[in-house]
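tool_call: predict_structure(chain=1)
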Amino acid sequence: MKQKNIGYALLAGSMLFGLTVASGAYAADVNKLAENCAGCHGADGANSDSHIPNIGGMSAKYLTITMAHYKHKERPCVEIEVQSGAKKGTKTDMCKVVAELSDDDVKQLSDYYAGKKFVRAAQKFDAALAAKGKAVHEKNCEKCHSESGSVADDDAGILAGQKIHYLKEQTEFFLAEKRPMHKKMAPKLKALSKDEVAAVVEYYGSLK
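tool_result:
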């Protein structure tokens, strides 16, 4: 009986050791992947470049879909300059970056950044325009972009506190049909005037 118990103990110990090693390997892999992303998106997915979105705290589902869109070149691949790290000063774009990632890499990175905190950008904004944008949001956008676009679980990307320049650019891509848009969003966005679009973008950017 004693030998049997010893056998169970050894089996349990080997299983626990295996899980620990696997967990450590996973952490090492994702940290290495995240190092490459940090060159543009910053540590934990937060950066100060107005052209590059903060991605920490986005839902894993949203990040996975986003990278799939880039992998299939369904979104414009805007060229940007790497901000830090070994490739600082060189140019790249998301399509090139994602092309090198496996499905497992994408899953690891999506889970990694979903576990970080979203950092709202410190930026200047037009207070009067933002006030008008709040009304536009409440009437047209709140149903899907809950709590002023601040809920990651909506799987629609966090808008509250995102870079104004980036939001303007992506809105233009939506309206030009250069980026996939949810079928419920398309008629609502296209029904807005240019002034209303500008106002709601300013509103999201104003949130601290």
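agent: The chain has a mean pLDDT of 89. Proceeding to next step.
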